[in-house]
Amino acid sequence: QVTLKESGPVLVRPTETLTLTCMVAGFSLRNKRMGVSWIRQPPGKALEWLGHIFSDDEKSYNMSLKSRVTISKDTSKNRIFLTLTNVDPRDTGTYYCGRIPPKQLLVDNWGQGSLVIVSS
Amino acid sequence: QSVLTQPSSASGAPGQRVTISCSGSSSNIEENGVNWYQQVPGTAPKLLIYNSDLRPSGVPDRFSGSKSGTSASLAISGLQSEDEADYYCAAFDDTLNGHVLFGGGTKLTVL
Description:
Shape of chain A: globular
Number of helices of chain B: 1
Largest sheet of chain A: 7 strands, mixed
Largest interface: A-B, 22 and 27 residues
Structural class of chain B: mainly beta
Oligomer: heterodimer
Radius of gyration of chain B: 13 Å
Helix content of chain A: under 10%
Distance between the termini of chain A: 40 Å
Distance between the termini of chain B: 36 Å
Shape of chain B: globular
Number of strands of chain B: 9
Order of helices and strands of chain A: EEEEEEEEEEE
Order of helices and strands of chain B: EEHEEEEEEE
Structural class of chain A: mainly beta
């Protein structure tokens, strides 16, 4: 069974760096062209793609975040990380990680989401 | 930057058929197809339709998708109260180095 679970701080102060972890199970990040995407959703608003990483370490990011976002992975521990620097209240929302299956351009399994509040 | 455009709301009575549209461009929907996600409030999104017209296993055949050029549609027939949710279209965009676009979402109300 494929599962993903996000974890990290609920409250982050403005200008700080947010780091979230996505723990995956039921599939391997060593599989060719397997990927994981990070997507967020501000309260009451639409989904926003943040970026993704593939098993070969290829990455792509939402350019609107202006280099604040970094995605990395620890394949041996089945973990994917999202780092967002210099956060502000507009970064408040629920952050999801999701699996990108090989040879597909989609997210077929989602984590439950991790709520992040940016406030002083 | 390209965007995917959806109506903000849609509605229908139980048993009726509802269609939700998603408008994009040649660099996203036309080239790469579209995926649809259903999100019941308070829960994570769920993949509903992929590659424009394919259903993952477990998704009822009341849900169907289609694509024509730079636009796509999601149709729900035999509307049920449990279909009340937000629906999002999504597509990869070739002009932005693999950037993924989401539509603004359509809130479906079952009357």
